[in-house]
Amino acid sequence: MSPSRRTPRVRGLGALLPRFSCAPRRLLVLGSAIALISCASAPRPPVLGQADQVALGPKASEAKSEAPQAFAHAEKLRREADQAFEDGDQAAAEILAERSIAAYSHAFVLVRLSRAEERLAKVKADLATAQADLTKLDKQQAEVAREAEALELRLKVARDAVPLTPNEPASADREAARLEAARALAAQARLLCVSAWLIAPDTKDIKASIESADALAKSLEKGPRPTPIDDAIKLRSGCLKQLTVARRAATASARASSEQDELLKALSDRGDLEPHRDDRGVVVTLRGLYQGNKLAKDARLRLEALAKVAKANPRFPVLISVHEGGADTKASELAKTLSDLGAPRVDARGIGDRLPLVPGRLRGAAQRNTRVEIVFISPIN
């Protein structure tokens, strides 16, 4: 064999080992590092710490006592979040922690709602108490007002009953003035006595007084001399006293609330009647009810409204007084109309010009004095 074609020299296995022995060592070190990294604890998510802070806050103790079920649900979610983290499921731990924070917030809201409802209930209770006290005061005020009116009426009756010095005959001018006053007093006596009779129709004395008032009014039309002014004063005083006595029994059984006030309100709510009070009760003055001797076109509408109120207040009989020409005929017609429309108890009297509101000599006096009065006779003082 030629020296140039020598067989290559093959190294032994021992010569190769040092070259390959480093690779397994590196792999071993790398695996150990990975194992150490995987075995190290993962950092705790911040949201878990936030849930712990919420659970230990001042509101949590309030929720625990005032909203126990909602608070227990929030605590359960927080424990489940901690368990998920310990099991290595960080995503589930964060979700559960967020849910626990929301559950704590819900519990806190329930506490605020509960306290708000308690405050609302207390305010309602205080309001109800205040309203009850106000109603009681209103009733007491109405009672005091009625007692004051009754005392004032009794004083008026007593003052009218004081014996007067008899009036002596006087000059022609004074006699004329006395005659006008006597006619007015007689007319007032008739209305007061009829009012008393409507409240207590079984009282004989009242009917006798009505007949006396009618007789006196008729005699005064002749202009007697001297004018019986003292008889007129005495008759009016007696009729006022009879009205007071007739009301006394009804007052004892009257409701605690003021029936007269309710009636006055019902009439006032109409807006076009303008009711007011006097000794007899509640008075509505109607003008323009007649055109000549016939009822005006809108008269029936006003009478229907009055009849409706009378029907709703049967304890208040109705007295009609006509202060214009043809008084007696118109009084009878109006009484029948109101009765046909449903008013339960109605009486009427023609007064004519015997009770003027202003002296007849003044300009416009006729228009002012011409009227129809619808009186709801009060059964109580």
Can you tell me about this structure?
The chain has 381 residues and is of the alpha+beta class. Helix content is 65%, strand content 8%. It has helices spanning 13-20, 22-39, 46-55, 58-66, 68-86, 90-161, 172-199, 204-220, 229-252, 259-268, 299-312, 327-340, 365-369, and strands spanning 276-277, 281-286, 290-291, 294-295, 318-323, 346-350, 371-377. Helix 3 (46-55) packs antiparallel against helix 5 (68-86), helix 3 runs parallel beside helix 6 (90-161) and helix 4 packs across helix 6 (90-161). Strands 1-2-7-5-6 form a 5-stranded mixed sheet, with helices on both faces. The longest helix is centred in the N-terminal third of the chain and has 72 residues, at 90-161. Mean pLDDT is 80; it is low at 1-23 and 33-40.
What are its keywords?
381 residues, alpha+beta, 5-stranded mixed β-sheet, two-stranded antiparallel ribbon, 13 helices, 7 strands, 65% helix, rod-shaped, disordered N terminus
SSE order and pairing:
Blueprint: H1 13-20, H2 22-39, H3 46-55, H4 58-66, H5 68-86, H6 90-161, H7 172-199, H8 204-220, H9 229-252, H10 259-268, E1 276-277, E2 281-286, E3 290-291, E4 294-295, H11 299-312, E5 318-323, H12 327-340, E6 346-350, H13 365-369, E7 371-377
Parallel strand pairs: 5-6
Antiparallel strand pairs: 1-2, 2-7, 3-4, 5-7
Helix pairs in contact: 3-5, 3-6, 4-5, 4-6, 5-6, 6-9, 7-8, 7-9, 8-9
Low-confidence parts lasting 5 or more residues at pLDDT below 50? 1-23, 33-40
Biggest sheet record: 5 strands, mixed
Total of DSSP H or I helical runs spanning 4+ residues = 13
**Which band does the percent of strand residues land in?**
5-15%
Radius of gyration: 52 Å
Question: What average pLDDT do the residues reach?
Answer: 80
Q: List the helices and strands in order.
A: HHHHHHHHHHEEEEHEHEHE
What's the total number of strands?
7
| Category by helix and strand content | alpha+beta
Shape: rod-shaped
- How far apart are the first and last residues' alpha carbons, in Å? 163 Å
